[in-house]
């Protein structure tokens, strides 16, 4: 655990412009996908975050050439990869490392990958990934926390996913791009990053249709060539700044976004009385009056994203009246509620619902970033609160938000990152 912490003095309105980085959840699939190509790829608009650094480090340790052209552009040469095993130490640090299974199957029909880590939302099974690989002709075994998946020959298959899962959809696409014949994935995830991965693979020569709908067809091809590709903007980073603007009575132009990807977030903000104006590749979020209560249910895309649920809870905590927030994707994504209550939020969790009684203001307090989006929520709460908030365990936030301090300071937020100067700060904010 890092000793660095965020210190936030709340109360400033966020105003001005912020530029959104590339999508984390697209990048962590596209980077491993490069191993299927038979020549180097240049990937642009890569977010400068620790999960991406881990993804490239995994490839480097497997023998790939990895060269950073600048902080957001990387060139990866997969030709020198000389193993089908992902190193255990780094691989289990992140959830997205499981994309190496599909990618290595696509490359050489065999993969040995540590069981995935990532944020703790209760049980996070990968049975649907396995079901897909087995349908494609693979067998698998588990040994010492590593999963080995192997196929004599990958053959296209008809796969019905029992629930909508982003990870399984993308992993099966990766394994199927070079399989013999046609693979059909039914009940597929429709998230923008699924479409981005399909676009990336198609640009390399794959034959994937239907990405963005719930039926995806992958016709196997012989080879994929290296290309230059630019990752889509991060829907969740954009949504996080939109909510931060609303929470602080701000006026922010959120640039480099795809407004269509933000529709569910925009709709909820408008329902709460926040003004949102859409431009071609930007949205302006402005709030002048009180926030109205509103009910939110998280759903797979195009529903309201689970990855915006904790941030939205902060806004609902400041709204007039009682709101209900339903989590329909993850079993246990309310661990942050106890932290938010330390700041004066009035929230009761009942199963998969949070009942939120709006309060007039939140108060600064020492809180923990219990996971990535929970951490973003604590930052928003700190910016909107009266007094000083200290956010601990910020390494979770750094996994998914590029330069969050710099971007917020650019908007007028009073936030800085430093090693906690002992208990003095605790006394001040006690
Ligand atoms: N599920 C299964 N079996 C499976 C796979 C999933 O039961 O084999 C269940 C999960 O337990 C969950 C639901 O299906 O209840 C959805 O899981 P999904 O596979 O869609 O999630 P994921 O691929 O593991 C990605 C993102 C998450 C995001 C979810 C949902 C990455 C690396 N992670 O996870 O992002 O919450 O999709 O949109 O892409 C985040 O960025 O903060 C984050 C956690």
Number of strands: 23
Overall pLDDT score:
95
Portion of residues within helices = 25-40%
Gap from first CA to last CA? 23 Å
Summarize the biggest pleated sheet. Answer: 4 strands, mixed
What integer value in Å does the Rg equal? 22 Å
* β-sheet strand percentage: 15-25%
Q: What would you call the shape?
A: globular
State the low-pLDDT regions, or none: 424-430
* Order of strands across the main sheet: 21-22-1-23
**What hetero molecules are bound to the protein chains?**
uridine-diphosphate-2(N-acetylglucosaminyl) butyric acid
Count of runs of 4 or more consecutive helical residues: 15
- Please state the structural category: alpha+beta
Reconstruct the topology from this structure:
Blueprint: E1 4-9, E2 15-19, H1 24-33, E3 41-44, H2 50-61, E4 65-70, E5 73-77, H3 88-91, H4 99-108, E6 110-114, H5 127-135, E7 138-143, E8 146-151, E9 158-160, H6 166-176, E10 182-186, H7 192-203, E11 207-209, E12 215-219, E13 228-230, H8 235-247, E14 251-255, H9 263-271, E15 275-278, E16 282-286, E17 296-297, H10 309-317, E18 322-326, H11 337-342, E19 346-350, E20 353-357, E21 366-368, H12 372-384, E22 388-392, H13 395-398, H14 404-410, E23 414-419, H15 424-429
Parallel strand pairs: 2-14, 3-13, 9-10, 17-18, 21-22
Antiparallel strand pairs: 1-22, 1-23, 3-5, 4-5, 6-8, 7-8, 10-12, 11-12, 14-16, 15-16, 18-20, 19-20
Bound molecules: uridine-diphosphate-2(N-acetylglucosaminyl) butyric acid (EPU).
């Amino acid at each position: 655990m890092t000793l660095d912490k965020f210190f936030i003095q709340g109360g400033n309105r966020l105003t001005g412009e912020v530029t959104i980085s590339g999508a984390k959840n697209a990048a962590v699939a596209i980077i491993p996908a490069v191993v299927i190509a038979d020549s180097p790829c240049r990937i642009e608009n890569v977010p400068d975050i620790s999960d991406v650094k881990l993804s490239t480090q995994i490839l480097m340790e497997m023998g790939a050439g990895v060269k950073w052209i600048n902080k957001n552009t990387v060139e990866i040469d997969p030709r020198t990869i000389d193993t089908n095993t992902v190193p255990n130490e780094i691989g289990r640090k992140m959830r997205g490392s499981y994309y190496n299974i599909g990618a290595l199957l696509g490359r050489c029909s065999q993969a040995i990958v540590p069981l995935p880590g990532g944020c703790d939302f209760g049980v996070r099974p990968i049975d649907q990934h396995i079901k897909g690989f087995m349908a494609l002709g693979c067998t698998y075994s588990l040994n010492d926390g590593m999963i080995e998946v192997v196929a004599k020959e990958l053959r296209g298959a008809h796969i019905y996913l029992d629930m909508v899962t982003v990870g399984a959809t993308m992993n099966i696409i990766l394994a199927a791009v070079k399989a013999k014949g046609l693979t059909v994935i039914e009940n597929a995830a429709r998230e923008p990053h699924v479409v981005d991965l399909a676009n990336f693979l198609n640009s390399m020569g794959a034959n994937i249709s239907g990405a963005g709908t719930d039926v995806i067809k992958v016709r196997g091809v012989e080879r994929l060539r290296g290309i230059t590709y630019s990752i889509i903007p991060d829907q969740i980073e954009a949504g996080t700044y939109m909510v931060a603007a609303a929470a602080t009575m701000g006026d922010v132009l959120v640039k480099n976004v795809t407004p269509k990807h933000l529709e569910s977030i925009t709709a909820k903000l408008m329902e709460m009385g926040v003004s949102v104006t859409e431009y071609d590749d930007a949205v302006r979020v402005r709030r002048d009056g009180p926030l109205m209560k509103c009910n939110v249910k998280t759903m797979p895309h195009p529903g309201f994203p689970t990855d915006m649920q904790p941030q939205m809870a902060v806004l609902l905590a400041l709204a007039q009246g009682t709101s209900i927030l339903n989590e329909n994707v993850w079993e246990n994504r309310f661990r942050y509620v106890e932290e938010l209550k330390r700041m004066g939020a009035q929230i009761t969790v009942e199963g998969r619902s949070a009942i939120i009684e709006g309060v007039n203001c939140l108060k600064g307090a020492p809180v923990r970033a219990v996971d990535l989006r929970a951490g973003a929520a604590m930052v928003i709460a700190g910016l909107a609160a009266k007094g000083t908030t200290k956010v601990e365990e910020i390494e979770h936030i750094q996994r998914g938000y590029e330069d969050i301090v710099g971007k917020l300071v650019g908007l007028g937020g009073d936030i800085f990152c430093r090693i906690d100067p002992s208990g003095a700060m605790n006394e001040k904010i006690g």
